Every structure is written in structure tokens, then in C-alpha cells.
Amino acid sequence: MYLVTDSGLAGGRSLEDIVTEAVAGGVTMVQLREKNLGTREFIELAVRLKSTLKRSGVPLIINDRVDVALASDADGVHLGQSDMPCTTARRLLGPDRIIGLSVENFEQIEEANRLDVDYIGISPVFATPTKTDTAMPFGLDGLARAVRMSVHPTVAIGGMNEGTAAETIARGTDGIAVVSAIVTVASPREAASRLLKIIDDERRV
After folding, report:
1. Neighbours of 103 (CB within 10 A)
2. What are the φ and ψ backbone dihedral angles of 108, each rounded to 5 degrees?
3. Which residues contact 119 (CB under 8 A, 6 or more apart)?
4. In 3-state terms, what secondary structure has residue 36?
5. What letters, b where the CB count within 10 A reaches 16 and e where it falls short, cover 69-97?
6. pLDDT digit string (tens) for 98-118?
7. Considering only CA atoms, which of 56, 55, 86, 61 is closest in space to residue 5?
8. 0.90 exceeded by the pTM?
């Protein structure tokens, strides 16, 4: 279960508090996605989150910004199709840091199969208001096909919540990336715990 942050949805609460609660509820990876921060602020926030997560062992992934990942000693980056090429990012980050790549169609999955990445984000599975600049949704049938095609672990992105988690996991994806279903709620810990139970129950079927 992969938490993607969005301070614009946090209702004034600190991301550190939300992340701490979410990890206590079962989140296993955190991506810091902040499009509107300056570089200095982004690095400072990443350093604070890295310190917060250090005790739990949950990896911190930086969205888009390889420079911020290096400066904050984050565990990796998540790249989009228009971001730094994965080959360049790997050269800069070295062999041990995590690189994730968003894919928006089946051709991009085939291309990703030839790249040195650690996982792909299948995006979007469903339409979502938290990210409006996305391609046509894969849908559940498309997700199942994408999972079969990929040589890398897969994370489903877009519209992930308590109502969609079970059917998404049933299509074979390795994880789900959650934004508003955790960031916007009164208790991120309880929301994460409920989602984790849904995931675990579906995997036992």
C-alpha cells in the first residue's frame, strides 16, 4: 500500500502527521509529490519525512525530482513519461535506489520492460480528481492485461479507495497507490488499516 502525498488535500494538517498515522495503519511506501514547492522547501520537507520514516523502515520516494531525492538522501524517485529518462536517473542515483515509472498505455509498458526500473505505476486505472492531466483510464480489464505484460512489479494508480481496492488487487497488481482516501480523512491511520485489510482479504481468496 503506497501513499502519495498531496498537501493541497491535507486541510492544513502537516504531512509529517498524516504520514506517521498512515504508516502506523499499514502503509508500506510513501511518495512525496509536491508540485508547488520551491526546491529548498521541497528538500527540507523531504528531509523531515525521511527522518519520520526512518524509524519504521518505510521507503521515501520523491516524485519527479532526482535532485531532491539526492539532496535529501531519499530511497528513490518516481518518474513520469516526460521526466528525466530512467537511464539517466539510474546513472545518477546508482544501482541501489528505487526507480518507479508511470506508464499510461501498453506501448509504454513494453518500453518499460527494457528499462532498469524497480516497478511501474499503471496510471490511471480509474479517472481521479487528484490528477487531471492523465491519459484514458486502463479500467480493470486493461489493468489485468498490463499486469500480465509487465516484467516489473506493478502499482495501480488512480481512483484507489475502499470501494475499488479489492477488485484492483484481484486483477493481479502488486499494490495500490492511494492519495485522497488517506490524505483527506480525519484518521489516516484508520483509513490505511481498513485498506490494508481489504488488500489482505482479497489476496487470501
Report:
1. 27
2. -70, -30
3. 98, 100, 101, 152, 153, 154, 155, 174
4. coil
5. bbbbebbbbbbbeebbebeebbeebeeeb
6. 999 999 999 999 999 999 999
7. 61
8. yes
